[in-house]
Every structure is written in structure tokens, then in C-alpha cells.
């Protein structure tokens, strides 16, 4: 996907970059004067995300869709995407940005914040194949107990606890709503994890996730979309190991 750059004004910051009229191509050399080092990009990324979160804290709205195209939040989102486009290291830097975005996604408490970080992650996945491969595989397939998002050039790992990762219902619902992750694969992976280790926290998470997805307005998914998970939960129930929440919702 080619990301067409509209004209935008530079932010009021001494760290601002000069934006070119065209996005640099993947074939550009590191010495291209329109590109910036990994350190410069990540420093600016931290500045922009800090400004972004400060603004979102002050907003009463809870959805990105309610903000007009000219809103400062959308302006900052575009600025962050442009950073990845202007990175001299087109493999390392976007991947590190995506890792930071995933960490922020699982930590931010607001629905607006989740939507903003998912929008950023979606754009990076569309624009950079390495990000799409690593981020989506991490979100869908990483180990439940400790999620690890690695990368092919060994630049680091994301280490996220289970409560921040697969047991975070609001984040999972937002990811499913965005279609960034597949409902079918999520169902299969959740059923597999329940079958392997049906502890109470995971059962509560699965039950709440299905309930939230099916009762949302509009629904994110129906109970039929979680056929594997519900079947596994039923097997756990028949074995006498289900929690009260499962019994209340499904029995």
C-alpha cells in the first residue's frame, strides 16, 4: 500500500522534521537527506505520543470516529506515520515503533486511546510487510503467559504480562472490531489455550470477551463466531471445572 502524503504543517517543536513533498521509496539510501536516523525518529516518536496522550486525556469523546479530519489528534497520528516513512532504516525503525505502539495499546485505559493506537498499528501494517508479519503473529499466536514480539534482526522483544495481553478484554474487542486480527483465528487460539490450561482467569476472560462482542452496539461478533471456545468451555463445564460466570452466561 502506498501512503499518499497530504500537506501538513510542522508541529511547534524544536525537534520537528522537515517533510518532503513525496514519501521516500524503499530503495532510498541511508544517506538520503530526506531520511532520518533511528535515534532521531524514536526520539520524535516519544515526543509525539506523549503529546497525543496528553490531548486524549482532556477529550470527553471516546471514539476516533467522532473527531473531525482537522482535529489535532488526527494531525498527530499523521505525524507519527510520517516518521516511519522517513526512517533511514526501513526495517528496524518501523518495527520498533510498532512494538512501542503495542505496549501503549495494552496500557492506555481509554477507548479513544485504544482506537488511536490500533489505527496507527493498522497503518504501519499496511505500509511495512515486516511490521504486518511480526505484529499480527504476535497478537494472535504469542504464548499466553508472556507475550513476546521478536523481530528478524534481533533489535529487541516486547514482554507483556498475561493480564496486559490476552486477558485484556477491551483491547481484544477493539482489535476484533478493527479487523486487524481475525475473529476465527482468535476463537481457535483461545479454545486451544483453554484446553491446555483452563485456569479461572482465562475462563473469565473468554466468557467476558464473548459477552462483550455479542452485546456491543453494533455487535463485534456473535456467539457462533466463538464456536470452538464455547465448545471447549462446555467441556470444562461438564468436567465440573467451569466458573460461576460461565454458568450464568451460557447455562
Keywords:
251 residues; mainly alpha; 10 helices; disordered N terminus
How would you sum up this structure, described in words?
The protein is mainly alpha-helical and 251 residues long. The protein has a domain of 137 residues. Helix content is 56%, strand content 3%. It contains ten helices and two strands. The chain has a two-stranded antiparallel ribbon. The protein is elongated. The N terminus is likely disordered.
Brief overview, please?
With about 250 residues, the chain is mainly alpha-helical. The chain is built from ten helices and two strands; from the N terminus they run αααααββααααα.
| Biggest sheet, spatial arrangement of strands | 1-2
Q: How far apart are the first and last residues' alpha carbons, in Å? A: 46 Å
Classification by helices and strands: mainly alpha
Our Rg estimate from Cα atoms comes to 20 Å
Helical content stands at 55-70%
Number of strands: 2
Main sheet summary: 2 strands, antiparallel
- The general outline is elongated
Low-confidence segments: 1-31, 144-164
Which sequence of SSEs, written as H and E, runs from N to C? Answer: HHHHHEEHHHHH
How many H/I helices?
10
Amino acid at each position: 500500500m502506498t501512503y499518499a502524503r497530504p500537506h501538513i504543517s510542522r508541529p511547534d517543536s524544536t525537534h520537528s522534521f522537515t517533510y518532503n513533498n513525496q514519501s521516500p521509496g524503499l530503495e532510498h539510501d541511508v544517506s538520503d537527506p530526506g531520511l532520518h536516523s533511528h535515534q532521531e525518529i524514536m526520539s520524535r516518536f516519544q515526543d509525539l505520543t506523549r503529546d497525543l496522550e496528553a490531548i486524549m486525556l482532556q477529550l470527553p469523546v471516546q471514539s476516533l470516529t467522532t473527531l473531525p479530519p482537522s482535529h489535532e489528534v488526527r494531525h498527530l497520528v499523521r505525524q507519527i506515520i510520517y516518521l516511519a516513512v522517513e526512517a533511514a532504516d526501513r526495517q528496524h525503525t518501523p518495527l520498533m515503533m510498532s512494538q512501542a505502539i503495542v505496549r501503549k495499546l495494552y496500557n492506555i485505559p481509554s477507548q479513544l486511546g485504544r482506537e488511536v493506537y490500533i489505527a496507527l498499528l493498522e497503518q504501519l501494517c499496511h505500509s511495512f510487510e515486516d511490521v504486518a508479519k511480526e505484529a499480527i503473529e504476535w497478537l494472535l499466536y504469542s504464548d499466553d503467559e508472556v507475550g513476546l514480539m521478536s523481530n528478524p534482526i534481533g533489535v529487541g522483544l516486547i514482554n507483556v504480562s498475561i493480564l496486559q495481553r490476552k486477558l485484556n478484554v477491551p483491547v481484544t474487542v477493539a482489535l476484533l472490531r478493527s479487523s486487524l486480527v481475525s475473529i476465527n483465528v482468535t476463537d481457535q487460539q483461545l479454545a486451544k489455550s483453554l484446553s491446555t490450561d483452563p485456569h479461572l482467569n482465562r475462563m473469565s476472560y473468554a466468557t467476558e470477551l464473548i459477552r462483550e462482542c455479542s452485546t456491543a452496539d453494533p455487535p463485534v461478533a456473535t456467539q457462533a463466531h466463538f464456536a470452538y471456545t464455547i465448545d471447549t468451555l462446555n467441556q470444562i463445564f461438564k468436567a465440573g471445572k467451569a466458573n460461576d460466570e460461565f454458568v450464568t452466561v451460557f447455562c
